[in-house]
C-alpha cells in the first residue's frame, strides 16, 4: 500500500505561464476563503520562494498565500530578454493576472520591495496593501555612491566564484537552519548555484540606475496602504551608518503613504523574514479584512 507524500510546507506547485512562453514556478497555500485577498510574496535579489518558508505558512490560515521564483531563480528558467525592473515587475503583474482579479496584498523583501511597488502602481485597483520588508529604497543616498556599487560588484564576483566551487552554501548554514525542513532542502539545492549568481549579476546591471530615476519620478501607488518593516540591527553587509540610512529611507517611504506604518524588527538585521517572521506576519494580517 503506497503512502501519499506529506504536503509541502509551502503548498502545491503551480506553473504560471507568461505571455512570451516562459513559465514561473509558484507554490500556493489556499486560505480559508477564495473571495478574500491573496497574499503574494516577492523575494530579494538572489532569493527564491523558499526564503518565505516561515512567513507564508503562517499567513495561509488567514488568506491564500502564493510564493514564486523569478526567472533565473529557483525552478523558473532564465529570461533571455533581461532582468530590468520593468521586466521583473511585468512578470509579477502577469502572475497576478493568472491568480485572478484580486484584491492582493503584495509583500516584498529587500530588492523585491521596488518590484511590488512598481507592480502595484501599474494596477492599483487590485492591490489592497503593500508590506515592504527591509526594502531597497531610492531615498537612501548610500545606494548610489561609487563605494556601494564597487562593493556590490565585488560581492557578486566573489559569490559566483564560491558557487562554482560549491562553497557558497556553507556560508548560509545558519540562515538555512532557521527554515522548515522541506523549504530548507529546496533552498540548499536551488539557492546557491552559479546560475543564481548569474541572474543576480544580470539584475544588478541596471537595477540601481533604474532605481535612481525614481528619485524624480517614483511609481505612484496612490492610496494603497504601505507598511515598511526595517531591521533594527547592523550586520548582513550593513554597517551602522548604512543601517541608519536604510531605516531613514523606510520611515520616509511609510510617511508618504496614507496611513503608512514604519515598524522596526528590533532583533533582526536584513533577513527579517527568517529572524523575525512573526513581525512580518503580524503586519500582513493587519492589512487583511476582518
At a glance:
The chain has 290 residues and is α/β, with parallel strands linked by helices.
Overview of the structural elements:
The protein is of the alpha/beta class and 290 residues long. It has one domain (12-285): Rossmann fold (3-Layer(aba) Sandwich), CATH 3.40.50.1820. 39% of the residues lie in helices and 16% in strands. The protein is built from 10 helices and 8 strands. Strands 1-2-4-3-5-6-7-8 form an 8-stranded mixed β-sheet, sandwiched between helices. Helix 2 (85-98) crosses helix 3 (112-122). The mean pLDDT is 96.
Multimer state: single chain
The whole-number mean of residue pLDDT values reads 96
Helix content: 25-40%
Please give the radius of gyration in angstroms. 18 Å
Percent range for β-strand residues: 15-25%
Give the CATH architecture.
3-Layer(aba) Sandwich
CATH class: Alpha Beta
Order of helices and strands: EEEHEHEHEHHHHEHEHH
Q: End-to-end span in angstroms? A: 44 Å
Strand order of the largest sheet: 1-2-4-3-5-6-7-8
By CATH, the superfamily comes out as: Alpha/Beta hydrolase fold, catalytic domain
Total number of helices: 10
Low-confidence stretches: none
Specify the overall morphology: globular
Number of domains: 1
Topology:
Blueprint: E1 12-17, E2 23-29, E3 38-42, H1 56-59, E4 64-68, H2 85-98, E5 104-109, H3 112-122, E6 127-133, H4 146-164, H5 173-176, H6 181-190, H7 194-213, E7 226-231, H8 240-256, E8 261-265, H9 272-275, H10 277-285
Parallel strand pairs: 3-4, 3-5, 5-6, 6-7, 7-8
Antiparallel strand pairs: 1-2, 2-4
Helix pairs in contact: 2-3, 4-7
Amino acid at each position: 500500500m503506497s503512502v501519499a507524500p506529506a504536503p509541502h510546507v509551502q503548498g502545491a506547485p503551480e506553473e504560471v505561464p507568461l505571455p512570451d512562453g516562459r513559465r514561473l514556478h509558484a507554490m500556493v497555500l489556499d486560505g480559508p476563503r477564495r473571495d478574500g485577498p491573496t497574499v503574494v510574496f516577492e523575494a530579494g535579489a538572489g532569493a527564491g520562494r523558499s526564503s518565505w518558508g516561515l512567513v507564508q505558512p503562517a499567513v495561509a490560515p488567514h488568506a491564500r498565500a502564493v510564493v514564486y521564483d523569478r526567472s533565473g531563480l529557483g525552478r523558473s528558467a532564465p529570461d533571455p530578454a533581461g532582468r530590468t525592473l520593468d521586466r521583473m515587475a511585468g512578470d509579477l503583474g502577469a502572475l497576478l493576472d493568472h491568480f485572478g482579479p484580486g484584491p492582493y496584498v503584495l509583500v516584498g523583501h529587500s530588492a523585491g520591495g521596488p518590484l511590488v511597488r512598481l507592480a502595484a502602481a501599474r494596477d492599483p485597483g487590485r492591490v489592497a496593501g503593500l508590506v515592504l520588508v527591509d526594502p531597497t529604497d531610492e531615498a537612501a543616498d548610500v545606494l548610489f555612491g561609487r563605494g556601494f556599487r564597487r562593493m556590490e560588484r565585488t560581492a557578486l564576483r566573489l559569490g559566483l566564484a564560491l558557487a562554482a566551487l560549491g562553497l557558497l552554501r556553507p556560508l548560509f548554514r545558519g540562515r538555512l537552519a532557521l527554515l522548515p525542513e522541506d523549504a530548507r532542502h529546496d533552498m540548499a539545492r536551488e539557492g546557491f548555484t552559479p546560475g543564481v549568481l548569474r541572474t543576480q549579476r544580470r539584475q544588478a546591471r541596471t537595477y540601481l540606475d533604474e532605481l535612481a530615476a525614481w528619485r524624480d519620478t517614483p511609481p505612484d501607488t496612490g492610496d494603497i496602504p504601505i507598511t515598511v518593516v526595517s531591521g533594527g540591527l547592523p550586520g548582513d553587509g550593513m554597517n551602522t551608518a548604512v543601517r541608519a540610512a536604510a531605516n531613514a529611507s523606510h520611515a520616509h517611504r511609510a510617511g508618504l503613504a496614507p496611513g503608512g506604518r514604519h515598524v522596526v524588527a528590533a532583533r533582526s538585521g536584513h533577513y527579517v523574514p527568517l529572524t523575525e517572521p512573526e513581525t512580518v506576519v503580524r503586519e500582513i494580517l493587519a492589512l487583511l479584512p476582518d
